[in-house]
Amino acid sequence: MLSSEIGTRVAGSPQEDAAATYASDQFLAWGYDVEVQDFQAQGADLQRHATLTVEGPEGVEFIVAALFGSRSGEARGRLLDAGTGQPDDVPADASNAIVLIQRDDVPFLDMANRALEAGAAGVLIVNKEPGRFPGVLEPAVDIVAAGISQADGAVLRELLAKGDIEVTLDVRESVTAHNVFARPASGTCRTLSGGHYDTVPWSPGAYDNASGSAIVLELARAAASAGLSDHCFVLWGGEEGGLQGSRFLISELTDNEIELLEAVFNYDAAAGPGEPQLIGATSLAGQAKALADELGLPAGITVLPENASSDHTAFLDAGIAALMLTAPDAGTLHTPDDTFENLVETSLQPIADLGFALLQEIGSP
User: Fold this and answer.
1) Which of 41, 69, 154, 217 has the smallest CB count inside 10 Å?
2) Tens of pLDDT along 157-185?
3) 248 Cβ contact partners less than 8 Å away, ≥ 6 residues apart
4) How far is CA 123 from each of CA 33, 72, 89, rounded to the nearest angstrom?
5) What is the pTM of this model?
6) What is the 3-state secondary structure (H, E, C) of 100-135?
7) In CATH, what number does 2-43+175-361 get?
8) Where along the chain do the CATH 3.40.630.10 domains lie?
9) φ, ψ for residue 189 (rounded to 5)?
10) Residues 243-284: pLDDT tens digits?
């Protein structure tokens, strides 16, 4: 559902809103009290929600990917084709225009600077292969800059062939994102099972993290069906912009709620090749590994790669025992190839089975 029907779910986007509504409806159907927590997400540059809107009767809106180093804000003007961004391609007078450049062999920085020198308000770079892409302007350039997929770029060129068009390129600096927090009738959370449901702008996010979100939803359904009590569930927003949803949730917990919380389980990137990986609090990792061995489930204790992070880290930083259950990357992480069709499901069922066994063992009175 999340990756195949809703697709890319950037924090603050309509797609993220649709995913939050879907999750909320599921939790409610299983008898949980649901709180949708809204918070302001100050996205890291590569995760800023950005759109291109064609003005006029067409009213077409495209999801685009803001370039790291782009200026935040809204740029509105006529769309001008600037070829591949070579010096002679960019019109000398592109005052207040949005220039459309085909990605080829010209560095992004040169494209942006040439557009700025010509007086353009924005630059839109069309990918040379399917899907969107991450791009970097180093150093930053004072222009609104984003990348668009090859297919959407072709649509824009078809519109341009029919005549002049006005467009608005909008790179948001701050957006409203959402956590979907489900509590049982008791209102008590002795455990919290969660996963983020947002994505980077250029990926449908099946592995990262529709897989983990699906496990959280299934655990919530199974726990309700089995009559397990005092287990809570959450889908976090804003993870890709710096664990913002999980940090916001922690800030909303009372001291008493934190004291009652015995364990947090974070399901992130949970469908991959190889055995499930346990990362986080030593005590929880050891307990989960022992339980996996008892049940004959594969699992190994490891650590996150350098410069990697996930929502359990926010809880560990707050002094709350937390464990991440994840799977090795099949090479699709943060790429347009992270689709449902490319999922490697080897670890998905073992992680779900271990997660349910943990709920049975931990927290139930």
Assistant:
1) 154
2) 999 999 999 999 999 988 899 999 999 99
3) 37, 39, 179, 238
4) 45, 13, 13
5) 0.91
6) EEECCCCCHHHHHHHHHHCCCCEEEEECCCCCCCCC
7) 3.40.630.10
8) 2-43+175-361
9) -115, 100
10) 999 999 999 999 999 999 999 999 999 999 989 999 999 999
